[in-house]
Amino acid sequence: MKWNLSTFGQQLGSDNGIDSLMQDLGVAMSGTQSYRMLGGGNPAHIPEVEAVWRERWEAIQASPGEVERILGNYDTPQGSPVFLDAMADSLASRYGWPISRENIAVVNGSQSAFFYLLNMFKGRNGTQFSRVLLPLNPEYIGYADQLLAPHAFTSTAPVVELIGDHRFKYHIDFDQLEITPETAAICVSRPTNPTGNVLTDEEMRRLDQLAGEYEIPLIVDNAYGAPFPDIMFSETKPVWTENTILAMSLSKLGLPGTRTGIVVASAEVIRRIGSINAVCGLANGNIGQAIAAPLLSNGLLYELSSEVIRPYYEAKSKQALAWLDQYLPADIPYRIHVSEGALFLWLWLPSLPISSSELYVRLKKRGVLVVSGHYFFYGLPEPHEHQDRCLRLSYALNAEDVEAGIAILADEVSAIHQ
Ligand SMILES: Cc1ncc(COP(=O)(O)O)c(C=O)c1O
Questions:
Q1: pLDDT for 345-392, tens place per residue?
Q2: Which of 150-154, 181-185, 204-208, 340-344 has the lowest mean pLDDT?
Q3: Which atom of ligand 1 is nearest to the CA of 259?
Q4: % of the chain residues with pLDDT over 90
Q5: pLDDT of 295 above 80
Q6: Domains of the chain by start residue, with CATH
Q7: Where are the alpha helices (H) located in 307-398, listed in sequence order?
Q8: How sure is the predictor about 98, in pLDDT bands with cuts at 50, 70 and 90?
Q9: Contact in structure between 355 and 374 (CB atoms under 8 Å)
Q10: What is the reported pLDDT for 84?
């Protein structure tokens, strides 16, 4: 190509982790090549949940003028007023949060919401350079290339709690957390992608307190959290305070194709997100909003989450953990992060003789897709010992593939160690 690329063009338009993950996912889900799919974060097709989408689809079709309205009109950049009201009212009545339509914005997928939010704020030092603090690493691969100022994430290595012979849990090392005048925001995913960790209520309280003290936002990525899709296996309280920006999504409920992300924030932040929506894309896709709005108002979306979606994934997580314990050779050291939520298991192989990205390549050759752990470590002052020794495994899809994929993984790991 004869043209020079800007920083934006180079950074977002080059090969990056999230692109390669989504390429693998897209190929596997299209059915053009058959893989044991333990890779990207596609949610499961849960028949009971899909029946609800189909029912809504049919109701939309049967309602005079509804199909034409959805397909033929742009919404306002903030989102459809009916959806905004349904979202705000249902959250306010469940949790007593002081919110209304002014506190909700729809975005084309919460991935886009993060692009906006991570670039929206500035540190307090008056310079243009700003950093986003990730209090815990490893953290979601999808943020890694989103900051327009390159290398502007800062993070802290986790405290590693070893549990029994084969489990562990990461905690935030609050003693090492450093908020500087350049820190523009704090961002965490909860449950955490890739590890399945759920930050404790106490960890969240301390982050909220820090955000308040330094007058910066705490951005909480609730893609897997409560109240929907509620892929959390422990009881925790959803929190929204004036320091918090909460990002939610319809994707992991089973509607990723509708690209519907939701931001709950102060009216000022919401106004700005609406404006950015207008600049970047005029308006949002409105099919997801049309499907979900009545289900928010009548509570069905919340019931589905706690009564169907959460138990479904909890059972799958337990099963996948059992298969890992069954298939991984007893004489090879391994640990799995405790599975507290999200769709993934995080496997740590401390004595792996090759890197996790080499293991990814070897597994792909054997028809198994996983995600190499190295993508999830960024912003740290120095490389972390887990960086090349971990894999993220999704347990969301077909059980037969998950078991066969784990068996092949165990076989490969065993062969490599020999
Ligand atoms: C932690 C986390 N945040 C955000 C997203 C973005 O999801 P979406 O854009 O589909 O809402 C994902 C998707 O996998 C995710 O895992």
A1: 999 999 999 999 999 999 999 999 999 999 999 999 999 999 999 999
A2: 150-154
A3: 10
A4: 83
A5: yes
A6: 7-48+306-417 (3.90.1150.10), 50-303 (3.40.640.10)
A7: 310-327, 356-365
A8: very high
A9: yes
A10: 98
Residue of 373, 389, 392, 377 lying closest to 155 (CA atoms): 377
Average pLDDT, the chain: 94
> Is ligand 1 within 6 A of the CB of residue 189?
yes
Distance from Cα 250 to the centre of ligand 1, integer Å: 10
Q: Give distance in angstroms: CA of 246 to centre of ligand 1.
A: 13
- Rounded CA-CA distance 77/282 in Å is 6
* Residue of 412 and 237 predicted with greater confidence: 412
Extended beta strands in 172-210, E state = 183-189
Which of 77, 134, 78, 112 lies closest to 265 in space, CA to CA? 78
Q: How confident is the model at residue 127 (pLDDT cuts 50, 70, 90)?
A: low
What spacing in Å lies between the alpha carbon of 154 and ligand 1's midpoint?
21
Residue nearest to atom 1 of ligand 1 (CA): 193
Mutate to test the pocket of ligand 1, among 108, 219, 251 (most ligand atoms within 8 A of CB): 251
Query: According to DSSP H, which parts of 103-164 are helical?
Result: 110-118
Tell me the CA end-to-end span of the chain in Å, nearest whole number: 46
Q: Is the CB of 108 within 6 Å of ligand 1?
A: no
Residue linked to tokens 């909003």: 289
| Percent of the chain that is helix, strand, coil (3-state, to 5) | 45, 15, 40
Q: What is the rounded CA–CA span in Å between residue 76 and residue 58?
A: 25
- The structure's pTM equals 0.95
What tens digit of pLDDT does each residue of 128-152 get? 678 999 999 999 999 998 988 867 9
Sign of the dihedral defined by the CA atoms of residues 121, 127, 132, 135, in that order: negative
User: Is there a contact between 18 and 141 (Cβ–Cβ < 8 Å)?
Assistant: yes
CA atoms of 178 and 326, how far apart (whole Å): 41
Nearest one of 267, 151, 266, 273 to 218, comparing CA atoms:
266
329 Cβ contact list (under 8 Å, min separation 6): 410, 413, 414, 417
